[in-house]
Amino acid sequence: MPEKVIIIGSGPSGLTAAIYIARANISHILFEGFQSGGIPGGQLMTTGIIENFPGFKQGVSGQRLMAEMKEQAVGMDAKTIMEDVDDVVLDCQPFKVISSSGDTYETESLIIATGATALRLPLVSEKKFWGRGISACAVCDGALPIFRNKPLAVIGGGDSAIEEAIHLTQFGSTVYIIHRRDDFRASKIMQKRAKTHPKIEILWNKTVSEFTGNLKLDGIKLKDALTGELSEIEVAGAFEAIGHRPNTAFLKGQLAMDEKGYILTKGSSTQTSVDGVFAAGDVQDSRYRQAITAAGSGCMAALEAERWLQKKEAVNG
């Protein structure tokens, strides 16, 4: 017999969906993932202290939050499998889900909660100094002793880049924002904060050509996007804030998506372009990308899947 629901993803949205589905006593499987798109638990597994998730007055580490969410789900008899999903077949009912081990599972409904992956610069030197001064999460790593009272850099020009730069001013002596254009994509209020902050220096029309150092990062070679002129700055840390890629490759275009690959949902719901398939969390949210909004949409997807199943059973009599 096919499952009633299969959930793909084990971040805040996937685990919240599993909690609701398990509590409703609906037969289900949750694929936690293994390597594709990151590690089980999602991006929060590499996040430091989270201070804006309700219920933790002293804050909570990303790993602890995800561990407790999983424990709660498993305690309610959520059925989990630590495998990636390599393929799905959505043009038939029941849907088919093919795992990385080659096993095929059938399900009447599907909740996709596979999240997104932070983009990184495609440089050999970036790989060399990853974790040795280069990071994609200022909140996770910015307070480390190696960065304190040292010049730091943020690469990007959106709200996330400016938020990270402002966060880093608590620790660094100077924070450079390296942006390839001559104007920010960020909101006006965030632009104003960056431009008026005494510890932030904006390097316009600059791209990173190379990260330099010996055992750890100690500088960045820059190229002027207009003149081609090369320059170099000394930094102890560089934080990439150049966007995210939704983890939707395994869908192979079977759902409607935007130009960046985020799954499109109908109105304020989590319903996708295929009836009975729902999407929750960062895989369909390019705007907020917060743990709490992901958890909320996981709840929505579970409730909508439950109602969809009830309606289907009523129609089929």
In short:
With 317 residues, the protein is α/β, with parallel strands linked by helices. It has helices at residues 12-23, 62-75, 124-129, 138-141, 159-168, 188-196, 291-316; strands at 3-8, 28-31, 49-50, 60-61, 80-81, 85-89, 95-99, 104-112, 116-118, 134-135, 152-155, 175-178, 200-203, 206-213, 217-224, 230-234, 237-240, 244-246, 277-279.
Secondary structure topology:
Elements: E1 3-8, H1 12-23, E2 28-31, E3 49-50, E4 60-61, H2 62-75, E5 80-81, E6 85-89, E7 95-99, E8 104-112, E9 116-118, H3 124-129, E10 134-135, H4 138-141, E11 152-155, H5 159-168, E12 175-178, H6 188-196, E13 200-203, E14 206-213, E15 217-224, E16 230-234, E17 237-240, E18 244-246, E19 277-279, H7 291-316
Parallel strand pairs: 1-2, 1-8, 2-5, 8-19, 10-17, 11-12, 11-17, 12-13
Antiparallel strand pairs: 3-4, 6-7, 7-8, 9-18, 14-15, 15-16
Helix pairs in contact: 1-2, 1-7, 5-6
Walkthrough of the structure:
The protein has helices spanning 12-23, 62-75, 124-129, 138-141, 159-168, 188-196, 291-316; strands spanning 3-8, 28-31, 49-50, 60-61, 80-81, 85-89, 95-99, 104-112, 116-118, 134-135, 152-155, 175-178, 200-203, 206-213, 217-224, 230-234, 237-240, 244-246, 277-279. The radius of gyration is 22 Å and the shape is elongated. It is 26% helix and 26% strand. It has seven helices and 19 strands. Helix 5 (159-168) links the parallel strand 11 (152-155) and strand 12. The mean pLDDT is 93. Strands 1, 2, 5, 6, 7, 8 and 19 form a seven-stranded mixed sheet that branches. The chain folds into two domains: 3-118 and 244-316, FAD/NAD(P)-binding domain, CATH 3.50.50.60; 124-240, FAD/NAD(P)-binding domain. With 317 residues, it is α/β, with parallel strands linked by helices.
